[in-house]
Amino acid sequence: MPSAEHPLLGRPPRNPATNGFWQRLLDEATAPYRAAGRFAWHFARGKLGRDPVFRGMLERGDFNHGGRVVDIGCGQGLLVSLLQRCGALAQAGQWPAGWPAAPVVTAYTGIELMPRDVQRATASVGALVLPGGEQPRFVCGDMRHTALPGCDLVVILDVLHYVDHAAQDALLARVRDALQPHGRLLLRVGDMDARRGFRISQWVDIVVTWVRGHRAPPTYGRPLAQWQATLQALGFRVRAVPMSAGTPFANVLLVATL
Fold first, then answer.
1. What domains, with CATH codes, occur in the chain?
2. Buried/exposed code over 208-226 (b: 16+ C-beta within 10 A; e: otherwise)
3. Tens of pLDDT, residues 217-250
């Protein structure tokens, strides 16, 4: 059984020289959401601009693991918009020299339970053209039952706790089966052992879900060590990256590679 590479690896320090590039990337990745209305645009600006996970994954090169991406709990499709602009800016020779190579996404499938979010995604970024000529594919469905296409990278950010532990285990096994050899899963979860931060994360999650126009379902958390052990038992090597620096939360990004 593979063992964890390291229990916790911190986020690389921010390079102020790339702040201007990040702002440009943020502006370009969120611009398409104006087509879906003020709410969609403001939500995109807030989520991409304030959540450290997106810039952190780019700075570490977490996405650079093949071109076929499955985004489970994709919401408005923010990730594909961000990644498409990364590729376009890199192609134009405008990628920061100090960052890992820009990700190149050749196929994208977003899975989302909420029809309104799928509608916003389709209206905003459904017509984007990815390298190779494909357009993003959005599926309105329950992640517990929706078929997963063969892929190189699966992204699950802050949604797996909405289903019970048995359903979590079943989905993670299906993710493992959908990934090609040496494929990667990027999974952000809350660490239940960090009690105060975990409770705050849950409360904020409920508020954000309500703002998006949805009712927050019950949640099913786990301690970080249990998340890691579950992934290792499926054949993943696991690296845990704290995602709560400067915040009161208990979020951890698990970078899991077959």
1. 16-257 (3.40.50.150)
2. eeeebeeeeeebebbebee
3. 668 889 999 999 999 999 999 999 987 554 555 7
